[in-house]
Amino acid sequence: MEELQEPTLLQSVRAHRSEVTCVDACGARLVTGGGDRALRLWRWLSGSGWDEVARAASAHRYGVTAARWAGGGALLASGGVDGAVRVWCGRALAARRLLAAPGAAAVRALCWPGRARLLAGHDDGALCVWHVQHGQLIARLHAHEGALHAVAAPACGLLLLTACTNGVLKVFDLAEVCRSGTGGLVSPAPLTWIDNAHDLGALCADATEDGRLVATGGQDAAVRVWRAAGGLAECGPPLEGHAAAVTALRWGGGGALLASASLDRTARLWAPLASACLHVVHAHSRYLTCVMLSHDLSYLVTGSNDKTVRMWSLGSLTIDDDLETPCAALTHFALGDLEGIGPVEGDDSLEDINELVPSPGEEEGEAEGSGSRCVWRSVVHAGAINCVTTHEDLVATASSDGTARVFRWNAEAGELEALHELRAHQYPCMAADFGAAGAMLLTAGLDARACLWDVEMGVQLRSLSAPAGGGEAGEAGGGGVRGARVSTQAPPLLLLASDDGVALVWSLATQDPRPWHVYAGHSEGVTCCAWSTDGRVAATGAASGELRLSAPPPAPRLLHHEPVAHDLGVQSCDFAPAQSALDMPDETYLLATAGCDSLIKLWVIECKEAELEEQGARVRLVNSVAAHGGGASCVRWGGSAEGGALLGSAGADRWARVWLASAGGAVLRLLAAVPAAGAGGALSVALLAAPPLLLVGSLAGELAAWHLPPEPDQSDEFSDDEEATAPPFWSHIGVARWLRENITRAPGSRMSRDAEAELLQRAQDAGVTGARLLTGDVDDLLIGFGYGPELNEEEVAESKSVAEREEVRAQLRDELQWLRRPPPAPSIERAAPHWLLCPVSHRLLREPARAADGYTYERGTALDCFLAEGAVSPVSGRRLRNARLLPNYAVRAQLRLYLLQAPV
């Protein structure tokens, strides 16, 4: 603060073709986003300033609204008007994750709460919490009625602050929000609720690195500073001085300084605790949209509606200086004990990174979706693809151009090979389904006809006409057919869904052109149909929203009628094929339905033979998920997977998604989301079992094949999903890893495996989480661990001596204090020896860990690097034999010694 000088302009660059909407810097790298859909990466060059090194011209379908670096600078997140969040490799601006929440409105705010988790605020007032490594939506909270422009995670990620354009500010327990899930069944109560926090609405928020302070700005031109401790309390009077709305805020200097940007075309630097404005920067000719303040208070960056980004020196920084301290990589090599470190393999350079992690192109469909990648795509029809169906390696499509096409997946070539083009419908072909173990294909269309085809030869076997109202065959006025299914029994039954409000059944046991049976009773057109895996139940859905379950001929009868399964209409239905994978009992089925109300619903259907005559089928709704904004158009099961069964879905929001259903359908977890090409988006989906592929048909006639991500491997004893996360997110799994690494198996530990097992079990039984490690009373935690100050008779009788107990108790107390330590002041960080800095982020280490290349990194930063660039050394670029990280106890001890001796 003493060195802070009047800001002087160092550089001005024309960053975008339209308004600059966001800016963020990490070390010597700068990212900017604009209304022109582009995301641009810049690197600081001594003597010339910011130089563009990478660009994603179509980072989002519409404008980019937010961009934030993760803590270590290996990953970068961006949000857009399209409602999607993308995670990028920070070195090359290559997409690594596409995070698309169902029905999401425009993204307005992003926040990394610690590590490995990402928060996104949306225009509809919803907050989404993402597991970045898996591309999984952990929680979705409808926090506000107004647009959610302000999101921050104060108290080191223990709390969540949200503020909206209605001026309402709320504070939640972030761990509780994460546990609430995505179904909306459990809505966490806010710890603090403040109406009119900003008159006319809040527009921005930012928390200090230590999480003790958080600032908000809004339409009232004021900046308010809050102290976060269990809840929220305002710290001093509002900071006033701007003449128009405050659009962006950013802390620097460990909370000593706050920068703000405003529509009044100025940026201001504040000393919040003194309630003083130190400098006013007349930054641009038009209003400011974003601001960034460096951690060490050496510079300020502003972005504006005038399409430029400007950099301002706040002290002695000149354009000839470096923004990062030159790093001697060998300083970070072989620190501490190298036992357990594996050698690197080969001599591959950094240029080969893309062989491990494919780098997508700039087109929307080429981006990875939650770990998925597009392996094949082609325009195969002149009209919309209304249906995609599969059997083993066979794929069939039905299109509005009146044709159906049959393909075979060539695993060696990684592409779909065209087999037949089937021309039999004068109007749009709406449905297709394989039967007889893939030997035949049933197609149906709006010309009120269904055709049966020989798949091998591509010749038509039979033609069936849907009679008017389900009457005699040959009558004029038959309604268009929307759905067509073939049952699995022999001989197969054909089921057609007709616009006349009936469903018709034919048997292939006869050549009779008339339907064997007609299911009537629907008040409007039947839009979809499906057979259960054993052919005992036929499901039909209608435009009226009703769902009917019926028994097939020769003893047809209504088993269940759901008057309003979906508001505005049922669009698709499908029975799950694998009962064993879903833990379903015999004579029980799981049905998925999709509707115009944007929902996917899962229904458990019990068809006990002894009860059918008297009471029909028992039907329970077990899950309902808001899957696609604007309407869900298609659901298709894809067989069993590890831990459940896969379900694909498509909708009007131009996304296709893959879900993992388990526990009898009660749990539905989003695995992947991929974009559909073309203006209309995704219309139909299907899943191919081997390799695991998602096939997406679009309104533009394009068929795309996406390779699905593998399930995470949890075989390693020390592996857990929380390794890269900050302590507030740890469950008992993360706490157990922390105890093993720092207590039970740390160097010098004499604890037996039996004593370790007892300690871990006590921690789990006591419900100790990472949040409790940070906030709970230390003595209470020690008692929960079984190492309280008092010994009872049982503990005296145990094998471990009193001296051992005292040693472990002291070690637990010491590690708890170390875990709770605040971030060091910038001056302490600047004075630290270079080998105590992470070689990637150039920040002081916090949890030093050794990788297989022999270098020591900050654990979370190294894991981010592996996600961004694959299993390669972040320093040398060489391939690694493994991506494991082991604690570097020697460096950790030196780090503690340095911080203990550093001046306060």
Automatic annotation (TrEMBL):
One MF term in the entry's GO annotations: ubiquitin-protein transferase activity
PROSITE patterns: WD_REPEATS_1 (PS00678), WD_REPEATS_2 (PS50082), WD_REPEATS_REGION (PS50294)
Repeat listed as a keyword: yes
WD repeats: 13-42, 57-88, 195-226, 239-270, 281-314, 422-463
Keyword list, A-Z: Repeat, WD repeat
Domain U-box: 835-898
Keyword check for Repeat: yes
Top-level lineage group: Eukaryota
GO BP annotation list: protein ubiquitination
InterPro entries: Ubox_domain, WD40/YVTN_repeat-like_dom_sf, WD40_PAC1, WD40_repeat_CS, WD40_repeat_dom_sf, WD40_rpt, Znf_RING/FYVE/PHD
Stated name of the protein: U-box domain-containing protein
